[in-house]
Every structure is written in C-alpha cells, then in structure tokens.
Amino acid sequence: MGRAATAAPAGFWHRAAAWSIDAACIAPVAMLLAWRWLQPASVPFCEATEALLRLAGELAARAIVDGTPLHGLAIALMHDPRITDATATLQLATWRWLLPASFAFGLVGAAWHVAGERSRWQGSPGKRLLGLRVTSRDGATPSLARSAWRHLAGTASWATLNLGHVMAAAGPRHLALHDRISATRVVDDAGPEARLPGWARAWLTLVVVAGVAVTAWLVQRAAALMEAGLLAALY
Q1: 226, 153, 216: which is closest to 183 by C-alpha?
Q2: CB atoms within 10 A of CB 88
Q3: Which of 14, 37, 164, 228 is within CB 3.0–4.6 Å of 160 for a Cys-Cys bond?
Q4: In the chain, where are the structural domains located?
Q5: Residue 42 neighbours by CB under 8 Å, 6+ apart
Q6: pLDDT (tens digit, 0 to 9) for every residue of the chain, 235 residues total?
Q7: ∠ CA 55-59-63, rounded to 5°
Q8: CA distances from 42 to 87, 96, 108, 127 (A)
Q9: Phi-psi region of 104 (alpha: psi -120 to 50; beta: other; left: phi over 0)
Q10: Alpha-carbon dihedral angle through residues 122, 127, 132, 133, given to the nearest 10 degrees
Q11: Which residues contact 65 (CB under 8 A, 6 or more apart)?
C-alpha cells in the first residue's frame, strides 16, 4: 500500500503547531514588505487608541461624580457623541494599519504555502517539520490551482472567527473549513496514533505564554490610560 492509502488525517494540534511555525517565519517578512505603509499608519493608530481610552476614563469619572448609576454608565458612554467620534477615528486608523499588514501577510503566505504544497514535501516547512502533507481528496499532490484556491479559502476560516480552523479538531476526517472548500486534506504519514513531539508541545506552550503576556500588557496599558483620564477629570 502506498502513502496515499496509509496516510491518516493530521490531528488538530499537529496542524496548529505547523501553522504557528509557518506564521512565525512569514510575519517578519510580511512586516518588512509592508513597513513603508505600516510605519506612518501606526502613529495615528496609537494616538487614536490613547485618545479613546483617556476620553472613556474622563467621561466615566464625570458620570460617577454626577451620580450616574453604575448599571447605566456603559449606556451613557456608548451614547456620548464624543465616544462615537473617537471610536470612528480609531476604526479608520485601525483599517489603515490592518489592511497593508493583512495584504502582505496573505501575499507572503500564499507564496510560502503554495510553493510548499507543490514541492516534493507537499507542504510548508512547518508541516514538513511535523511530518504532514497536503493532498487532494484522492491522495495526489494538489495542482497549482487547487493549492492557490486552498490558501484563498483560508480567508473563510478566519472570517468565521477561527471556527473554520477549529473544525479540524472534529474526527474522523479532521477537515478544516478551507479543506472542505478546496477539496483537500492534511495527512500525517506517522499514522493516527502519532503523538505531538515534545519540542512541538514546548513551542505551542511558548506561543500561548507569549500571547497571554502580550494580552496582559495591553490590558494593563489600557487600564493605565483610562485611569489617567479618570484622574484628570477628578483633579
């Protein structure tokens, strides 16, 4: 029996580890490619974020001093025209920063993944490290058009707030949304009982810890800006 006949569907965590490795390689290249647009867009984005958080803290302090009950505080803030204007400014600044970053990441990612799937590895370098391959439903190497369509279909998995990716956790076929759309699958030649290597578990742990640390820093920074606005209003 050949590889196509014996290969088992790749598990969710194997795929997650492979994708995160690829993303860590793609992101720096994408940022360099988009830096010409990201650098000037980052300044208004940071300023708009800071202005909104400070304003929210200031208005919250004034509402409390005026006796607004806590349960009505959020409603009062949402209907304040100054908050509405600041939010609109932040949304525009966010899109101006996000669009070039997303386009560059998608462009570099397309070259990275499509080239990998069309190679003898049948997968990106991240998949190669985990022993995974991308195949068509019949086990053959995907055509150039199918690989490109698979990468484009990944947009649908992201657009569903990653539910399309989580679908890969469901057995027995472990197909993500973009696998279903493009009629492809990710297989693991090591078999269905293959365990995630220790180094890959350590890598995923590092990714989670880094994500939690960045989130905690952002929350702390947001709280500090709101506190500064609150104190400015009170004193």
Answers
A1: 153
A2: 12
A3: 164
A4: 3-234
A5: 97
A6: 445 545 799 999 999 999 999 999 999 999 999 999 999 999 999 999 999 999 988 888 888 777 777 677 777 778 889 999 999 999 999 999 999 999 999 999 999 999 999 999 999 999 999 999 999 998 899 999 999 999 999 999 999 989 999 999 998 889 999 999 999 999 998 877 789 999 999 999 999 999 999 999 999 999 998 888 888 777 7
A7: 170
A8: 16, 9, 21, 33
A9: alpha
A10: -20
A11: 233, 234
CA distance 74 to 218: 21
Hey, what are 33's tokens? 């490619």
The helix/strand count (H/E) of the chain reads as 9, 3
The beta strand positions in the chain, using DSSP E, are 8-9, 132-136, 184-188
Whole-model pTM: value is 0.86
